[in-house]
Specification:
Protein name: Exodeoxyribonuclease III
Pfam family, one: Exo_endo_phos
Structural class: alpha+beta
Strand content: 25-35%
Radius of gyration: 17 Å
Organism: Methyloceanibacter superfactus
Strand order of the largest sheet: 3-4-2-1-14-13
CATH architecture: 4-Layer Sandwich
Helix content: 10-25%
Family: Belongs to the DNA repair enzymes AP/ExoA family.
CATH superfamily: Endonuclease/exonuclease/phosphatase
CATH topology: Deoxyribonuclease I, Chain A
GO molecular function, one term: endonuclease activity
Number of strands: 14
Order of helices and strands: EHEHEEEEEHEHEHEEEHEE
DNA sequence: ATGACAGGCGGGGCCTGA
Protein backbone atom coordinates (compact mmCIF):
# COMPACT_ATOMS: atom_id res chain seq x y z
CA UNK A 1 0.00 0.00 0.00
CA UNK A 2 1.34 3.39 -1.03
CA UNK A 3 0.61 6.45 1.09
CA UNK A 4 1.55 9.85 -0.33
CA UNK A 5 1.65 13.39 0.99
CA UNK A 6 1.79 16.52 -1.18
CA UNK A 7 1.32 20.20 -0.51
CA UNK A 8 -0.23 21.18 -3.83
CA UNK A 9 -0.49 24.95 -3.15
CA UNK A 10 -4.04 25.45 -4.38
CA UNK A 11 -6.12 22.53 -5.65
CA UNK A 12 -8.03 24.62 -8.18
CA UNK A 13 -4.80 25.90 -9.74
CA UNK A 14 -3.27 22.43 -9.61
CA UNK A 15 -6.06 20.03 -10.53
CA UNK A 16 -4.45 18.86 -13.79
CA UNK A 17 -1.07 18.52 -12.10
CA UNK A 18 -2.58 16.52 -9.25
CA UNK A 19 -4.62 14.15 -11.42
CA UNK A 20 -1.71 13.59 -13.82
CA UNK A 21 0.54 12.57 -10.96
CA UNK A 22 -2.12 10.42 -9.26
CA UNK A 23 -2.82 8.57 -12.53
CA UNK A 24 0.89 7.95 -12.96
CA UNK A 25 1.81 6.86 -9.42
CA UNK A 26 -1.56 5.58 -8.21
CA UNK A 27 -1.05 5.90 -4.45
CA UNK A 28 -3.71 4.09 -2.37
CA UNK A 29 -3.99 7.07 -0.03
CA UNK A 30 -2.98 10.68 -0.71
CA UNK A 31 -2.81 13.52 1.79
CA UNK A 32 -3.12 16.95 0.18
CA UNK A 33 -2.33 20.23 1.93
CA UNK A 34 -2.97 23.87 1.10
CA UNK A 35 -6.02 23.13 -0.99
CA UNK A 36 -7.01 26.79 -0.44
CA UNK A 37 -10.74 26.31 -0.92
CA UNK A 38 -13.93 25.59 0.97
CA UNK A 39 -15.25 22.02 1.10
CA UNK A 40 -17.96 22.70 -1.49
CA UNK A 41 -15.43 24.14 -3.97
CA UNK A 42 -13.16 21.08 -3.81
CA UNK A 43 -13.02 19.24 -7.17
CA UNK A 44 -14.26 15.99 -5.62
CA UNK A 45 -15.48 14.46 -8.90
CA UNK A 46 -12.07 14.79 -10.57
CA UNK A 47 -10.63 12.54 -7.85
CA UNK A 48 -13.62 10.21 -7.67
CA UNK A 49 -13.17 9.64 -11.41
CA UNK A 50 -9.72 8.24 -10.56
CA UNK A 51 -11.24 5.82 -8.06
CA UNK A 52 -10.73 7.79 -4.85
CA UNK A 53 -12.99 8.32 -1.89
CA UNK A 54 -12.63 11.94 -0.83
CA UNK A 55 -12.63 13.67 2.56
CA UNK A 56 -12.12 17.43 2.77
CA UNK A 57 -11.45 19.91 5.55
CA UNK A 58 -11.21 23.27 3.85
CA UNK A 59 -11.63 26.98 4.45
CA UNK A 60 -11.85 30.07 2.28
CA UNK A 61 -8.66 31.22 0.62
CA UNK A 62 -5.96 29.60 2.74
CA UNK A 63 -4.87 26.36 4.38
CA UNK A 64 -7.16 23.36 3.91
CA UNK A 65 -6.38 19.63 3.77
CA UNK A 66 -7.91 16.68 1.93
CA UNK A 67 -7.63 12.91 2.09
CA UNK A 68 -7.99 10.67 -0.95
CA UNK A 69 -8.33 6.91 -0.48
CA UNK A 70 -9.03 4.08 -2.87
CA UNK A 71 -10.47 2.15 0.07
CA UNK A 72 -13.52 3.66 1.80
CA UNK A 73 -13.11 5.58 5.04
CA UNK A 74 -14.36 3.89 8.21
CA UNK A 75 -13.95 7.19 10.10
CA UNK A 76 -13.05 10.77 9.24
CA UNK A 77 -12.21 13.37 11.89
CA UNK A 78 -11.51 17.00 10.92
CA UNK A 79 -9.72 19.43 13.20
CA UNK A 80 -7.01 19.13 15.85
CA UNK A 81 -8.26 19.01 19.42
CA UNK A 82 -6.97 21.26 22.15
CA UNK A 83 -8.02 24.78 21.14
CA UNK A 84 -11.68 25.60 20.56
CA UNK A 85 -10.69 29.07 19.25
CA UNK A 86 -8.57 27.66 16.41
CA UNK A 87 -10.52 27.85 13.14
CA UNK A 88 -7.64 27.13 10.75
CA UNK A 89 -8.21 24.00 8.61
CA UNK A 90 -4.95 22.12 9.08
CA UNK A 91 -5.84 18.62 10.33
CA UNK A 92 -7.80 15.70 8.93
CA UNK A 93 -7.73 12.16 10.24
CA UNK A 94 -9.02 9.09 8.42
CA UNK A 95 -9.24 5.37 9.21
CA UNK A 96 -9.27 2.76 6.47
CA UNK A 97 -9.67 -1.02 6.70
CA UNK A 98 -6.83 -2.98 5.11
CA UNK A 99 -6.19 -6.73 4.79
CA UNK A 100 -4.05 -6.72 7.96
CA UNK A 101 -6.61 -4.71 9.99
CA UNK A 102 -6.77 -0.93 9.87
CA UNK A 103 -4.49 1.99 9.11
CA UNK A 104 -5.04 5.45 10.53
CA UNK A 105 -3.75 8.35 8.44
CA UNK A 106 -3.39 11.82 9.94
CA UNK A 107 -3.01 14.58 7.35
CA UNK A 108 -1.44 17.77 8.74
CA UNK A 109 -0.56 21.22 7.47
CA UNK A 110 1.55 22.46 10.35
CA UNK A 111 1.75 26.26 10.74
CA UNK A 112 4.74 28.03 9.18
CA UNK A 113 5.40 30.27 12.19
CA UNK A 114 7.35 33.06 10.49
CA UNK A 115 6.32 36.69 10.66
CA UNK A 116 4.72 38.09 13.80
CA UNK A 117 5.82 36.51 17.11
CA UNK A 118 2.31 35.24 17.81
CA UNK A 119 2.58 33.11 14.67
CA UNK A 120 5.57 31.28 16.11
CA UNK A 121 3.73 30.83 19.41
CA UNK A 122 0.77 29.39 17.46
CA UNK A 123 3.10 26.98 15.67
CA UNK A 124 4.64 25.66 18.90
CA UNK A 125 1.24 25.42 20.59
CA UNK A 126 -0.08 23.53 17.55
CA UNK A 127 2.87 21.13 17.79
CA UNK A 128 2.07 20.54 21.46
CA UNK A 129 -1.55 19.81 20.57
CA UNK A 130 -0.39 17.42 17.84
CA UNK A 131 1.85 15.64 20.34
CA UNK A 132 -1.09 15.12 22.70
CA UNK A 133 -3.27 13.75 19.90
CA UNK A 134 -0.53 11.43 18.63
CA UNK A 135 0.10 10.20 22.16
CA UNK A 136 -3.56 9.22 22.41
CA UNK A 137 -3.53 7.54 19.00
CA UNK A 138 -0.38 5.57 19.74
CA UNK A 139 -2.24 3.91 22.62
CA UNK A 140 -4.29 2.03 20.01
CA UNK A 141 -1.07 0.20 19.05
CA UNK A 142 -2.11 0.15 15.40
CA UNK A 143 -0.49 1.24 12.14
CA UNK A 144 -0.57 5.05 12.20
CA UNK A 145 0.87 7.42 9.60
CA UNK A 146 1.15 11.10 10.47
CA UNK A 147 1.81 12.72 7.10
CA UNK A 148 1.94 16.21 5.73
CA UNK A 149 3.66 19.54 5.43
CA UNK A 150 5.33 19.87 8.83
CA UNK A 151 7.08 23.16 8.05
CA UNK A 152 9.96 21.68 10.05
CA UNK A 153 13.53 21.18 8.83
CA UNK A 154 14.55 18.34 11.17
CA UNK A 155 18.34 18.61 10.84
CA UNK A 156 21.10 20.67 9.16
CA UNK A 157 21.45 18.13 6.34
CA UNK A 158 17.80 18.80 5.42
CA UNK A 159 18.47 22.34 4.18
CA UNK A 160 20.88 23.58 1.50
CA UNK A 161 22.40 26.28 3.71
CA UNK A 162 21.66 25.72 7.41
CA UNK A 163 23.54 28.78 8.64
CA UNK A 164 21.16 31.04 6.68
CA UNK A 165 18.13 29.37 8.28
CA UNK A 166 19.07 29.45 11.95
CA UNK A 167 16.53 32.15 12.83
CA UNK A 168 13.77 30.83 10.59
CA UNK A 169 10.67 29.35 12.21
CA UNK A 170 11.17 26.16 10.17
CA UNK A 171 14.60 25.52 11.71
CA UNK A 172 14.71 27.33 15.04
CA UNK A 173 15.88 25.21 17.99
CA UNK A 174 12.42 25.33 19.61
CA UNK A 175 10.84 23.99 16.41
CA UNK A 176 13.33 21.16 16.11
CA UNK A 177 12.92 20.33 19.79
CA UNK A 178 9.17 20.07 19.39
CA UNK A 179 9.62 17.84 16.33
CA UNK A 180 12.07 15.67 18.26
CA UNK A 181 9.56 15.43 21.13
CA UNK A 182 7.06 14.06 18.62
CA UNK A 183 9.58 11.47 17.42
CA UNK A 184 10.36 10.61 21.04
CA UNK A 185 6.79 9.40 21.49
CA UNK A 186 7.89 6.48 19.33
CA UNK A 187 7.43 7.70 15.76
CA UNK A 188 9.80 6.91 12.89
CA UNK A 189 10.65 9.35 10.09
CA UNK A 190 9.90 7.09 7.11
CA UNK A 191 12.22 8.86 4.71
CA UNK A 192 15.17 8.85 7.11
CA UNK A 193 14.54 5.17 7.91
CA UNK A 194 15.20 4.44 4.22
CA UNK A 195 17.74 7.12 3.28
CA UNK A 196 20.70 8.68 5.07
CA UNK A 197 21.99 10.92 2.29
CA UNK A 198 21.95 14.68 2.92
CA UNK A 199 20.21 17.33 0.79
CA UNK A 200 17.14 15.35 -0.21
CA UNK A 201 14.47 18.01 -0.47
CA UNK A 202 10.67 18.21 -0.76
CA UNK A 203 10.35 21.99 -1.23
CA UNK A 204 12.03 24.57 -3.43
CA UNK A 205 10.95 28.23 -3.24
CA UNK A 206 9.56 29.80 -6.40
CA UNK A 207 11.94 32.70 -5.94
CA UNK A 208 15.58 33.33 -6.81
CA UNK A 209 15.96 30.20 -8.96
CA UNK A 210 15.85 27.91 -5.94
CA UNK A 211 14.86 24.82 -7.98
CA UNK A 212 17.57 25.36 -10.59
CA UNK A 213 20.19 25.83 -7.85
CA UNK A 214 18.78 22.97 -5.73
CA UNK A 215 18.25 25.36 -2.83
CA UNK A 216 15.65 23.18 -1.15
CA UNK A 217 14.27 22.09 2.19
CA UNK A 218 13.04 18.74 3.51
CA UNK A 219 9.89 19.78 5.34
CA UNK A 220 7.26 17.25 4.22
CA UNK A 221 7.33 14.08 6.28
CA UNK A 222 5.60 10.78 7.00
CA UNK A 223 6.00 9.72 10.62
CA UNK A 224 5.11 6.12 11.49
CA UNK A 225 3.92 4.36 14.63
CA UNK A 226 5.93 1.24 15.54
CA UNK A 227 3.22 -0.95 13.96
CA UNK A 228 3.52 1.02 10.71
CA UNK A 229 7.32 1.25 10.81
CA UNK A 230 7.52 -2.54 11.10
CA UNK A 231 5.70 -2.71 7.76
CA UNK A 232 7.73 -0.03 5.95
CA UNK A 233 9.07 -1.20 2.59
CA UNK A 234 10.22 2.02 0.95
CA UNK A 235 9.92 5.79 1.08
CA UNK A 236 10.74 8.02 -1.87
CA UNK A 237 10.53 11.69 -2.77
CA UNK A 238 9.23 12.24 -6.31
CA UNK A 239 10.78 15.53 -7.40
CA UNK A 240 9.68 15.25 -11.03
CA UNK A 241 6.50 17.38 -10.69
CA UNK A 242 8.64 20.34 -9.57
CA UNK A 243 9.94 20.60 -13.16
CA UNK A 244 6.45 20.64 -14.72
CA UNK A 245 4.61 23.72 -15.94
CA UNK A 246 3.04 25.75 -13.12
CA UNK A 247 4.28 23.46 -10.35
CA UNK A 248 3.56 23.48 -6.65
CA UNK A 249 6.61 24.57 -4.66
CA UNK A 250 6.39 21.20 -2.83
CA UNK A 251 6.71 17.71 -4.33
CA UNK A 252 5.08 14.41 -3.31
CA UNK A 253 6.69 11.95 -0.93
CA UNK A 254 5.45 8.36 -0.90
CA UNK A 255 5.81 5.58 1.68
CA UNK A 256 5.09 1.97 0.78
CA UNK A 257 3.88 -0.28 3.60
CA UNK A 258 2.87 -3.95 3.63
CA UNK A 259 -0.57 -3.52 5.17
C1' DA B 1 19.96 45.05 2.38
C1' DT B 2 16.25 44.12 -0.45
C1' DG B 3 13.42 41.48 -3.37
C1' DA B 4 12.68 37.81 -5.84
C1' DC B 5 7.20 34.02 -7.07
C1' DA B 6 2.78 32.33 -6.75
C1' DG B 7 -2.44 31.66 -5.45
C1' DG B 8 -6.67 33.61 -3.67
C1' DC B 9 -9.77 37.20 -3.63
C1' DG B 10 -11.90 40.15 -6.48
C1' DG B 11 -11.52 43.15 -9.84
C1' DG B 12 -6.52 46.74 -7.51
C1' DG B 13 -3.45 45.65 -4.96
C1' DC B 14 -2.99 43.29 -0.59
C1' DC B 15 -2.37 39.09 2.24
C1' DT B 16 -0.13 34.84 2.94
C1' DG B 17 3.32 31.59 2.31
C1' DA B 18 8.48 29.36 3.33
Amino acid sequence: MKIATWNINGVKARIDTATTWLKSESPDIACLQEIKCMDEAFPTHAFEDLGYNVAVHGQKGFNGVALLSKLPFDEVTPGLAGDAEDVQARYLEGVVSVPSGVVRVVNIYLPNGNGAPEKFAYKLAWMNRLKERVKALLAFEEPLVVAGDYNVIPAPEDVYNPSAWMDDALFRPETRAHFQALLNLGLTDAFRACHDEPHRFTFWDYQAGAWQKNHGLRIDHLLLSPQAADRLIACEIDATPRSWEKPSDHVPIVAELSL
